[in-house]
């Protein structure tokens, strides 16, 4: 069993978490909302994958870099981790762009704002 792909996905998720923490975009801004959003997104895409597998549209390819562990027939565990990465990355990009637009709104002081909102007096 190879763990290269799963390891690369885990490393990438770790990198996203570091960015998230640094800029307080998702989990470090609102952990409950972020967790719900990621779970819903991953479940949606897993259902999409299962539908594609049932209809014969998708098929699992063999690779020496994958673990061989499966969540269901033809559905490797790496797929769920990849979908988590995809959803988390999309959420972080969305939050970053949303905050950037909000900071440029008239009457806002972008110098004294963080990704999780305005700074308090102690943080300024």
Automatic annotation (TrEMBL):
GO terms for biological process: carotenoid biosynthetic process. GO terms for cellular component: membrane. It is a multi-pass membrane protein. GO terms for molecular function: intramolecular lyase activity; lycopene beta cyclase activity. It is found in: Membrane. NCBIfam families: CarR_dom_SF. This is Lycopene cyclase domain-containing protein.
């Amino acid at each position: 069993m190879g763990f290269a792909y799963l390891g690369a996905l885990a490393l990438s998720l770790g990198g996203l978490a570091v960015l998230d923490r640094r800029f307080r975009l998702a989990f470090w801004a609102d952990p409950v909302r972020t967790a719900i959003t990621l779970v819903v997104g991953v479940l949606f895409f897993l259902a999409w994958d299962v539908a594609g597998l049932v209809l014969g549209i998708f098929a699992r390819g063999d690779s020496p870099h994958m673990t061989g562990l499966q969540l269901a027939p033809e559905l490797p565990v790496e797929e769920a981790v990849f979908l988590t990465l995809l959803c988390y990355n999309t959420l972080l990009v969305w939050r970053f762009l949303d905050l950037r637009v909000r900071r440029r709104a008239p009457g806002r002081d972008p110098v004294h704002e963080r990704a999780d909102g305005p700074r308090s007096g102690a943080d300024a």
